[in-house]
Design a protein that fits this description.
The structure holds 3 protein chains of 3 kinds. Chain A is an alpha+beta fold. Chain A has 5 helices and 5 strands, in the order H-E-H-E-E-H-E-E-H-H. In chain A, the strands form 2 sheets. Chain A has a 3-stranded antiparallel β-sheet. A two-stranded antiparallel ribbon of chain A has the order 1-4. The longest helix of chain A has 15 residues. Chain A is elongated, with a radius of gyration of 24 Å. Chain B is α/β, with parallel strands linked by helices. Chain B has 22 helices and 31 strands. Chain B has a 7-stranded mixed β-sheet, with helices on both faces. The longest helix of chain B is centred in the N-terminal third of the chain and has 16 residues. By secondary structure, chain C is an alpha/beta fold. Chain C has 3 domains: 210 residues, NADH-ubiquinone oxidoreductase 51kDa subunit (Rossmann fold, 3-Layer(aba) Sandwich); 84 residues, Roll (Ubiquitin-like (UB roll)), CATH 3.10.20.600; 105 residues, de novo design (two linked rop proteins) (Up-down Bundle), CATH 1.20.1440.230. In chain C, the strands form 2 sheets. Chain C has a 5-stranded mixed β-sheet, with helices on both faces. The longest helix of chain C is centred in the last third of the chain and has 18 residues. The chains are: A alpha+beta, B alpha/beta, C alpha/beta.
Chain lengths: 201, 745, 432
């Protein structure tokens, strides 16, 4: 019997020396794991333009029908995103959202990611429909280097494409640099055409 | 679709092991489609001749040299064996798709076509999976406006030429052209002719990629967000079949829903982009009642009570009703019913053309039963030999009919335009006669005079009435070609030629615009044209027809439903006709009920409406008329309610609710039901279908009509007037002798 | 230098032969007179006997082509002379038109008579100004002398000749594109069937022949079909004007009997290879025909032998490439031509030729990859036989044949980033 008590107490004594798992929440915040999916953030490019092109793919992918978008065309006077199209209205209904992260998987420009913020509570339901102004990161806050604020969880869990195998052939770069084409045309839009493009003569 | 007919022999062939039987002359692509086998296409379009440019529709045909063959250019032959999924075919299609994609921008996420793009779909189904093109794609400035409503993105264009061929071959208008050649090939606008076609929207719809986009739809939504409802275009009397695409609470576009008998797969821009009124933020949402001289927002109950109370204080003779050519048959029917049954008055009318009950030669009996009916069919135009536009301008008024006429011209028809105003079709007409406004009736009489004078008449009607024709000619003796030619500065011989061609044609179509009959001098136009048609046997012959081209979506329906002072639904004559449109507005009544119409537009002094003791207006917006109203009731648009329209060739077609009704507004039939019940009528219609059923039982023309029977392509009521073998024709306004006119498909 | 066998180019050396008077003094228009005295069927029969085959490239028997002309059409029949000579490496029609325009006019008149057409068109390539001027003048002279137009030579036969100048598009040498162009439309090839013999210009049945073919007809009439059939080989009868160009000492047109060995043409007539170098490759029939290497120098130049060697006699435009020629560069230049001249109607030709040029340019300038050679072949496979008209096939023939024959040179470009031979190789060495 005594043996059992000693055994139990030794356990208690051993644990007393350890740092507690719990934190005193409002004052202290726990850091989130890399793949944590919290509130959505809409990102910007380095030059301040919004990444979101208003393509509706996140809304289409959303199993909870939580995203509502209205798109509009960029004008010369007011350029919101690169390319032709931007989201004028971008609402996420946090009451419906199940934080599955399909929206960031669907996004072709890496505009929407689920970040670390989890403090989503309000006494009024309408407050929990987040509008574009609330979702969009502020100018200057966008991801530089490894600033964790808006790194997005993409980097943590999306497999990176394999690097091009090194070419054994000596490349004499003349007229053609052999640069690979990409789907970045999404962001090309009505910007001035690349002068090196072969059609322009 | 491909009913075996006697004149076209059938051909048997095998496609992927399936036996198919199609008419001779069918291309392999079409045969495969009928067999349920998809062959990808870009340049080919079922409504246009084959081009063979995109090299996408490859198939392998046994015993043919140099496989693979293009299925859109190869006609079927007896015993042909086609394979659509051999390795050779797959490789060829992959090759073509890879070529198409080397310079395609892949900006699908922001492309309006993304989600319903044939390049996307076919790449997914037949494509190579990955591209080996590792060079830079070419770029163009974009978007380029090619017209007021259409924008061009040259990077996305795959040079299939559908748009260019549509404007050049189908619409036969200048505008779009192919520029440059080889890999620089691109679509452009003819520097000498702007792309201002009223059919420009079709190029957007048929563009297989997102190269041509509509300004109104640009970036508004993505295709998978849309709810698509089959309906009918409310733009004009042609009644083109459309699909109404709605996102949440806004109509974003109308797309064609091919009906070969009516629209042949095309829409005009006016119809396609004419949905602004539905989305109008200024639409009425709350009933208004005039209090102390001002229109105040009130509840529905208060407004409906006010209507019933105001109307009850007037005697039947003091009340009038003005119906609409835009509301459904069900609403038109209910409107005349509430006035006739509830308010006991025949003062009912709407704004329409003049169709005299009897022609000038009544004694000869040469009037058809219904001069207001176009006796031919739209599809019948395809093979008409002569087409006479007598004071009609379909390009502006019934645009899709203009494409039908052009199709007829391609099939060898000859077109004569006789009108006061120049029109766009003059350019390709075989004969153009410019006359003075109001001279159309005189021209019709002259042509009839020639027919009588030269003994050109033919057909049962003329034979039966032959004895009276001399007397008839006597009445027309003033209308000699010489006199009329001098009056209008024409050649008398030309008039004679026209008369002779009409009398000799295998199917002549003579049409005039409904509103042309309202010009001074044309009061008898409807009867005169019908006389001409009867004497030359162009009323009931296949591919022939005479009659008016109506203006609005339900112009004919309003007549059929008896929104007229002198007839009940189905043209049953009334013993005591009521006041007509002009008489009611000219002070003949003290209380006026207006449903979906704006008579103030047709009045020289709209302020006269203010003198009415009671003016009730049901409409979507605060129209000029509504400004004088005592009660204004907000109504719903065609996109928010169910019902049916009758088009200009008597085809009854279903209109379906495409979106939730505007909060606060009610459908006209709901309003009528509510007022009717306040007038003690005890109406229990739960839906427009109930009204449809009542129409089917009480209106012989619409016998057997059900919503189910209307299907997706509508039903046409038969016109039997003037066909009676005994030659005894009923007077205008009465049913034809046989009485029952079964609906036919 | 060996003598040529002048049949089509008979009397071409005579000064002033381009005028009617001199031409007639040397027997001109006698064949027309002879033909008009015969039944049209007899004229056609004479041409059939001669075994004359189309000189435009396909080599279809001319007499047989004429007999295919649809009878009983409600529309008038037409004759078209295809003088849109644009194939790189050919310049025979140009010589005929510039120096012997009356022979062409006479040939057109006889052929029109034989086929029963009242209107003949001569479609001349836009760039050939002098040729158009000469033919135009010859037609005018013929009209003035009563040899064309109404009531020719008092026989009561009417034949009008209309000269049409193209706007400078290679594709308009394709017969149906030529017809579109002639009608004032964009030069796109038409869907076949219907073939021109059934519905051609303005929907009427149309006979269309090459300029050289029609210019041969007067000689056949003058000397008899049997005489002409005696020249040349068993299946390729008559003479051929070989247009020799490239690295030879004396490039030019040489009219020789069919079946003359290639080596004879190059060495005996064209004066041998420039600078005494060795021949590396020969393109026997204009740039759209596959290349041959030096081992094929001894083949006789007739339709069958060239086909057996793996190429086509085509329009007999012999292009000689010497040992110092970079094959990739030469192929690139030819492919550029096809890229620029593609009409843009069909996808494989429009996009494929563009891609081919990009790849070849990358290879030529040293940016190529090992996979590019296989890619080139596969693109060619996707164009060849898949394009709307033969232009697509033509664009690929030089690439396919050159990769087959000179794969090492392509590989050298990939691995070394420069040309194996020629200017490119020397520059690269100097730079190192």
């Amino acid at each position: 019997m005594a043996n059992e008590i000693i055994k139990g107490l030794s356990r208690t004594l051993r644990e007393m020396g350890r740092k507690p798992t719990t934190v005193s929440y409002p004052e202290q915040h726990r850091s989130q794991p890399a793949r944590y999916r919290g509130r959505h953030v809409l990102h910007r490019y380095e030059n301040g333009l919004e990444r979101c092109v208003g393509c509706f793919l996140c809304a289409g992918a959303c199993p909870a029908d939580a995203i509502y978008i209205e798109a509009e065309e960029n004008s010369e006077a007011q350029r919101v995103s690169p390319g032709e199209r931007f989201a004028r209205v971008f609402d996420v209904n946090m009451l419906r959202c199940i934080f599955c992260g399909y929206c960031q998987q669907a996004c072709p420009t890496g505009a929407i990611t689920l970040e670390k913020e989890y403090e989503l509570a309000s006494l009024r339901p309408e407050d929990l429909i987040y509008h574009k102004e609330q979702l969009l990161e502020a100018v200057g806050e966008q991801h530089h280097g490894d600033n964790p604020a808006t790194i997005g969880s993409n980097t943590a869990w999306q497999p990176q494409p394999p690097a091009d195998p090194p070419l054994t052939i000596p490349q004499q770069r003349g007229t053609f640099d052999g640069q690979a084409a990409s789907a970045a045309a999404v962001g090309q839009g009505n910007l001035i055409p690349d002068p090196s493009s072969p059609i322009q003569d | 679709m491909s009913q075996p007919t006697n004149d076209v022999p059938m051909v048997n062939l095998t496609i992927d092991g399936r036996q198919v039987t199609v008419p001779k002359g069918t291309v392999v692509w079409k045969a495969a489609q009928l067999a349920g086998i998809e062959i990808p296409i870009y340049c080919y379009h079922p409504k246009m001749p084959p081009l063979g440019a995109c090299r996408m529709c490859f198939v392998e045909i046994e015993k043919m040299p140099k496989p693979p063959q293009t299925s859109c250019t190869t006609e079927v032959t007896e015993g042909m064996v086609v394979h659509t999924d051999t390795e050779l075919v797959k490789k060829a299609r992959q090759g073509t798709l890879e070529f198409l994609l080397i310079n395609h921008p892949l900006d699908c996420p922001i492309c309006d076509k993304g989600g319903e793009c044939e390049l996307q779909d076919f790449t997914l189904r037949y494509g190579p999976g990955a591209s080996r093109f590792d060079l830079k794609k070419r770029h163009f400035q974009k978007p380029i406006p090619v017209s007021e409503n259409v924008l061009l993105d040259r990077e996305r264009c795959i040079a299939c030429q559908r748009c260019v061929r549509f404007t050049q071959d189908i619409a036969r208008e200048p505008g779009l052209i192919m520029e440059e050649r080889g890999f620089r090939t691109m679509v452009g606008v003819d520097p000498n002719a702007p792309f201002d076609s009223i059919f420009s929207g079709n190029t957007v719809e048929m563009c297989p990629v997102g190269a041509l986009t509509a300004k109104s739809y640009r970036f508004m939504t993505r295709p998978w967000e849309l709810r698509r409802t089959p309906s009918v275009c409310p733009g004009c009397a042609v009644g083109c079949n459309v699909r109404v695409d709605v996102r949440v609470d806004r109509v974003l576009r109308l797309m064609s829903r091919t009906n070969d008998a009516i629209d042949d797969g095309w829409l005009c821009d006016r119809g396609r982009w004419g949905y602004a009124a539905v989305n109008d933020p200024d639409r009425l949402r709350v009933p208004l009642v005039r209090k102390n001289g001002e229109l105040r927002e009130v509840t529905w109950d208060e407004a409906l009570d006010a209507v019933a109370q105001r109307l009850r204080t007037l005697s039947p003779a003091q009340i009038g009703g003005i119906g609409s050519t835009h509301t459904t048959n069900e609403e038109a029917y209910l409107f005349q019913k509430i006035l006739r049954d509830g308010l006991k008055t025949n003062n009912i009318d709407h704004f329409h053309g003049v169709f005299p009950a009897a022609s000038m030669n009544a004694s000869s009996g040469a009037t058809g039963a219904m001069p207001w009916v176009f006796t031919g069919t739209i599809a019948g135009l395809d093979h008409a030999q002569e087409i006479i536009l007598l004071g009609a301008d379909p390009y502006q008024q019934q645009p899709v009919l203009d494409l039908r006429i052009k199709k007829a011209l391609r099939n060898g028809a000859r077109l004569t335009v006789i009108s006061a105003e120049p029109s766009r079709i003059d350019r390709i007409a075989h004969r153009v006669m410019r006359i003075k406004s109001g001279g159309e009736a005189a021209i019709a009489r002259t042509l009839t005079q020639v027919v009588v004078a030269e003994h050109l008449w033919r057909g049962t009607f003329a034979e039966v009435n032959e004895t009276q024709l001399a007397r008839y000619g006597e009445r027309l003796k003033d209308y000699t070609p010489e006199r009329i030619a001098i009056a209008f500065g024409l050649e008398a011989e030309d008039l004679r030629t026209v008369a002779r061609t009409i009398a000799g044609a295998h199917g002549a179509v003579i049409v005039y615009d409904e509103m042309t009959t309202r010009t001074t001098g044309n009061e008898t136009l409807a009867a005169d044209v019908l006389d001409l048609g009867l004497l030359t046997d162009n009323v009931t012959q296949p591919n022939a027809g005479v009659g008016p081209l109506f203006s609005d979506a339900n112009s004919l329906g309003a007549r059929d439903m008896g929104v007229l002072p002198d007839v009940a639904p189905g043209y049953r004559a009334l013993a005591k006709p009521g006041l007509d449109y002009a008489a009611m507005l000219g002070g003949g009544v003290r209380g006026l009920w207006v449903m979906g119409a704006d008579p103030a537009r047709h009045m020289s002094d709209p302020a006269a409406l203010a003198k009415l003791e009671t003016l009730v207006v049901q409409d979507m917006r605060l129209t000029a008329t509504a400004q004088y109203a005592h009660v204004v009731l907000p109504a719903l648009s065609y996109a928010e309610k169910t019902g049916s329209f009758t088009n200009l060739e008597r085809c009854v077609q279903a209109v379906r609710r495409a979106m939730p009704p505007l909060p606060g507004a009610r459908a006209d039939w709901e309003i009528l039901r509510a007022v009717g019940n306040r007038l003690g009528l005890n109406w229990t219609y739960r839906s427009p279908s109930d009204i449809t059923k009542e129409i089917a039982t009480s209106v012989p023309l619409y016998a057997d009509l059900t919503r189910e029977a209307l299907g997706s392509q509508g039903q046409r009521w038969n016109f039997a007037g003037g066909r009676e073998a005994d030659g005894v024709l009923s007077d205008g306004g009465q049913l034809p002798a046989n009485g029952s006119l079964p609906l036919s498909h | 230098m060996a003598e040529q066998m002048r049949v089509v180019t008979k009397d071409i050396e005579i000064p002033g032969i381009d005028t009617l008077a001199v031409y007639q003094a040397h027997g001109g228009y006698a064949a027309l007179r002879k033909a008009l005295a015969m039944e049209p069927v007899a004229v056609m029969e004479e041409v059939k006997i001669s075994g004359l085959r189309g000189r435009g490239g396909a080599g279809f028997p001319t007499g047989m082509k004429w007999s295919f002309l649809a009878k009983g059409s409600s529309k008038p029949t037409y004759l078209a002379c295809n003088a849109d000579e644009s194939e790189p490496g050919t310049f025979k029609d140009r010589m005929i038109m510039e120096r012997l325009p009356h022979r062409l006019v006479e040939g057109v008149l006889i052929s029109a008579y034989a086929t029963g057409t009242k209107t003949a068109f001569i479609y001349i390539r836009g760039e050939l100004k002098q040729a158009a001027r000469q033919v135009g003048r010859a037609i005018q002279e013929a009209y003035d002398a009563g040899l064309a137009g109404k009531n020719i030579m008092g026989t009561g036969i009417d034949i009008d000749i209309i000269l049409h100048r193209g706007a400078g598009a290679y594709i308009c040498g394709e017969e149906t594109a030529l017809m579109e162009s002639l009608e004032g439309k964009r030069g796109y090839p038409r869907l076949k069937p219907p073939f021109p013999a059934a519905a051609g210009i303005y929907g009427g049945p149309t006979v269309i022949n090459n300029c050289e073919t029609l210019s041969t007809v007067p000689l056949i009439l003058a000397n008899g079909g049997a005489w002409y059939a005696g020249i040349g080989t068993e299946k390729s009868k008559g003479t051929r004007i070989f247009c020799v160009s490239g690295h030879v000492n004396k490039p030019g047109n040489y009219e020789l009997p069919m079946g003359t060995p290639l080596r004879t043409i190059i060495d005996d007539y064209a004066g041998g290879v420039l600078g005494g170098k060795r021949v590396k490759a020969i393109i026997p029939g204009g740039s759209s025909t596959p290349m041959l290497d030096a081992s094929k120098l001894d083949i006789p130049m007739d339709y069958e032998s060239v086909a057996a060697a793996g190429s086509m006699l085509g329009a007999a435009g012999v292009i000689v490439l010497d040992e110092d020629t970079c094959i990739v560069g030469a192929v690139l230049r030819m492919t550029e031509f096809y890229r620029d001249e593609s009409c843009g109607k069909c996808t494989p030709c429009r996009e494929g030729t563009y891609w081919l040029v990009e790849l070849l340019e990358r290879l030529e300038h040293g940016g190529g990859r090992g996979s590019d050679i296989a890619l080139l072949r596969d693109i060619c496979d996707n164009i060849s036989g898949k394009s709307f008209c033969p232009l697509g096939d033509a664009a690929t023939s030089s690439i396919i044949s050159s990769i087959k024959l000179f794969a090492d040179e392509y590989l050298y470009h990939v691995t070394q980033g420069r040309c194996l031979v020629g200017e490119g190789a020397r520059q690269a060495i100097a730079a190192h």
